[in-house]
Amino acid sequence: MITRRHFLSLAVFTSLAPACAWAQNPTRLPTVGILSPNSPVGTCGPDQQERTVCYFLDGFRALGYVEGRNVAIEYRFADGEFKRLPVLATELVALRPDVIYTHTGLSADAAAGATTTIPIVIGPAGETSLTRLAGNLARPTTNVTGIALNTIGQDEKCLQLLKELSPRSTRVAVLLNPHNFDYRGYPGVLGPAAAQSGMTLIGIEIRSASDLPEAFATIAGKGANAILLTADPLLTASDEIRPPVIDWATRRRLPLASPSYRVAPGGGLFSLSTDIQAPARRAAHYVHRILNGARPADLPVERPTTFKLVVNRKTANALGLSIPQSVLLRADEVIQ
After folding, report:
1. What is the average per-residue pLDDT within 210-227?
2. In the predicted model, is pLDDT for residue 311 greater than 80?
3. What fold is seen in the domain 21-149+276-298?
4. Tens digit of pLDDT for each residue in 60-79?
5. Secondary structure, 3-state, 82-114
6. Domain boundaries, the chain
7. Rounded (5°) CA angle 150-313-191
8. Per the CATH hierarchy, to which homologous superfamily does domain 151-273+308-335 belong?
9. What does the CA dihedral 230, 236, 240, 243 come to, rounded to 10 degrees?
10. Model's pTM, two decimal places?
């Protein structure tokens, strides 16, 4: 287990510390618990998903917080071993922090399962998870609030784009992790959007890399001619799953789409992702407000609305696809 009370050295600010209830009690600093499914090694590295905690801390620092001076921070990192999250969440709760910050649906479930009293700020996680955990997005009825990603809307847009780029894609294999609550209704919830695009969806469950051979056999056996790789971190952050899926799809000449920003640069046809930086930094404002007396019920769940489209032209050429000008004009980046 990696526990680092002073994992990141935050810059010292000359601005006044935020006014809070602890100013009258110098013997105890307000404490923020941070639970992350990632590894601390890459926390401020180049990978966007790994940087979520770093983005949060940047936003927190901008509000005038200095670790060890006016706030204490307790870190728990799962190093990509998602099964450890409930244990790490329980450890954080035992330390009685004033608020817990976490991100991704799996971490949100772990934190909410460990406490119903300590405020939890999630930033970001899927909207389905936050709806369930917060009770009401407009006015949370539990100890949970934060920033929600519209995963269903993103995947619906992915299907629409897939049809634009690959009109012959009619049978789409939807790869998902059944243990992630955000995807438990899949692929059924995408049915109306798929029908509008003339697509039939085939659900393929993947729990670990050992499921890949069977998944590939099912995709081939059911005649899928395209793949949607959902943005579950187990599938897209793992080098044991994402690269083999992309490689297999490439060899089978199947267009592969995903809401994960990692997929297009890795050889997929396109990625339609959410910029993690804005919601993570916004979550810092939620934590700030809770430290100053707000309750989760006072903080409506917010939803980012902007996406980043990255199209891999090299992959499109290899698949014999011509990228429509309308898509090129919407793309934020085109990989040549």
Report:
1. 98
2. yes
3. Rossmann fold (3.40.50)
4. 999 999 999 999 999 999 99
5. HHHHHHHHHHHHHCCCCEEEECCHHHHHHHHHH
6. 21-149+276-298, 151-273+308-335
7. 35
8. Response regulator (3.40.50.2300)
9. 90
10. 0.78
